[in-house]
C-alpha cells in the first residue's frame, strides 16, 4: 500500500450518497443509493486526485481495466441497452467514474439521469440482490465489504 492510498478518504458527498460494495485493486466500488437506475461509481483509492491525468501511468491503465471490466459485467448482469460511463466531478472534486446501466424503458431515457427524478432509496433486500448478482460475476476481482446487518 503506498502513501497516496494510505491517505485516501472518500469525499463526504460520495459517502452520503453511496453504498460501499467493495474494492478492486485500485478503485472502491460504490452503489449510488437511487433505485431508479443501477448506478455505480468507481473511486481510485488515491489521495488528492481530481482528474484521470493526475494518476500515474500505471494507475491510469488499471482504472481503464477496472472500468471496462465493471461496465461489461454490469451490462451483462442487468441486460443493459447502453452503459453510460462518465467522469464529471463538477459537484464532487474527487476523481470518480459513474457507470450507469441504461434501458430504453428507464424513466430518463434517452436523456441524462441527473435531476430527472427524486432518488428512491434502495431497500436492504434490493442491495442484497445487487451484491449477490455482482458476487456471481466479479468474485476474485472485487473484495466485497461486509454487508451491514
Structure description:
- The chain is α+β, with helices and mostly antiparallel strands and 149 residues long.
- It has a domain at 3-106: HIT family, subunit A, CATH 3.30.428.
- Helices cover 32% and strands 21% of the residues.
- It is built from 4 helices and 6 strands, in the order H-H-E-E-E-H-E-E-H-E.
- The chain has helices at 3-6, 12-17, 57-78, 124-138, and strands at residues 18-23, 27-32, 39-44, 82-86, 97-102, 143-144.
- It has a 6-stranded antiparallel sheet with strand order 4-5-3-2-1-6.
- Helix 3 (57-78) crosses helix 4.
- The protein starts with a helix and ends in a 5-residue tail after the last strand.
- 25% of the residues are buried.
Give helix and strand order, one letter per element, not per position: HHEEEHEEHE
The CATH architecture of the domain at 3-106 can be given as 2-Layer Sandwich
Mean pLDDT: 92
CATH-defined superfamily of the domain at 3-106: HIT-like
* Strand content range: 15-25%
Unreliable stretches covering 5 or more consecutive residues? none
Can you give the helix content as a percent range?
25-40%
**Strand arrangement, major sheet:** 4-5-3-2-1-6
The count of helical stretches stands at 4
Distance between the termini: 29 Å
Which CATH class of the domain at 3-106 applies here?
Answer: Alpha Beta
Per DSSP E runs of 2 or more residues, the count of β-strands stands at: 6
CATH topology of the domain at 3-106: HIT family, subunit A
Shape: globular
Please state the CA-atom Rg, rounded to the nearest Å.
15 Å
Q: How many strands, what sense, and barrel or not for the largest sheet?
A: 6 strands, antiparallel
For this structure, the quaternary state is single chain
- What structural category arises from helix and sheet content? alpha+beta
Amino acid at each position: 500500500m503506498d502513501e497516496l492510498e494510505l491517505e485516501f478518504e472518500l469525499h463526504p458527498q460520495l459517502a452520503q450518497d453511496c453504498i460501499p460494495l467493495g474494492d478492486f485493486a485500485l478503485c472502491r466500488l460504490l452503489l449510488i443509493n437511487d433505485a431508479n437506475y443501477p448506478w455505480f461509481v468507481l473511486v481510485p483509492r488515491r489521495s488528492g486526485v481530481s482528474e484521470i491525468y493526475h494518476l500515474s501511468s500505471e494507475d491510469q491503465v488499471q482504472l481503464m481495466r477496472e472500468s471496462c471490466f465493471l461496465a461489461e459485467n454490469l451490462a451483462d448482469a442487468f441486460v443493459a441497452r447502453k452503459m453510460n460511463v462518465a467522469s464529471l466531478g463538477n459537484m464532487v472534486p474527487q476523481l470518480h467514474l459513474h457507470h450507469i446501466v441504461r434501458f430504453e424503458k428507464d424513466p430518463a431515457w434517452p436523456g441524462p439521469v441527473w435531476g430527472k427524478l427524486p432518488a428512491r432509496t434502495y431497500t436492504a433486500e434490493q442491495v442484497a440482490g445487487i451484491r449477490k448478482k455482482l458476487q456471481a460475476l466479479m468474485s476474485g476481482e472485487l473484495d466485497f465489504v461486509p454487508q451491514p446487518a
